[in-house]
Amino acid sequence: MTNRESDGQHFDVIAVGAGMAGLYLLKKLRDAGFSAVALETADDVGGTWYWNRYPGARCDIESLDYSYSFDPELEKEWQWSERYATQPEILRYLQFVANRYDLRRDIRFSTRVDRASWDEDAGLWRITTDNGDRITAQFYVMATGCLSMPKEPDVPGVDRFGGPIYFTNRWPHEGVDFSGKRVAVIGTGSSGIQSIPLIAEQASQITVFQRTANYAAPANNGPVRREHREQLEEDRNAYREGARWSRAGVPISGSTEPFFSVEPGERMRRLEAGWTRGDLLTINSSFADLVVNAAANFEVQEFFRDKVREKVLDPLTAEDLCGKDFPLFSKRLCLETNYFETFNSPKAKLVNLHRTPIKSITEAGIDTSAESMEFDAIVFATGFDAMTGAIVAVDIRGRDGIELKNVWAEGPKTYLGLSVHGFPNFFTITGPGSPSVLSNMAVSIEQHVEWITAALEHLRGEGFHSIEATSAAQESWVTHVNDYANLTLYPQANSWYMGANVPGKPRVFLPYIGGVDRYRQVCDDVVKRDYLGFEQVGNAGSRCNDGVIRPVKPDVQLLLELLASLDQPPLDSLTPEAARQQMEASAAQRPPGPEVDEIIDGILPGPAGELDYRLYKPAIPGLAPIVIYFHGGGWVLGHASSDEPFCRYLCAESNALVISVNYRHAPEARFPAAVDDAVAAVNWIAANAEFLGGDSHNIAVAGWSAGANLAAVVCQLALAHDGPAIKGQLLITPVTDGDFTRPSYRDNAEGYILTRSLMEWFWDHYCDVDDRHDPRASPLRAQSLTGLPPAMVVTAELDPLRDEGNAYADALKAAGVQVQHLQAAGQIHTSLLAVDAIMTSDNTRRLMKDALIGFLR
Ligand code: N01
Question: Any residues with CB less than 8 A from the CB of 263 and at least 6 apart, and which?
Answer without folding.
Answer: none
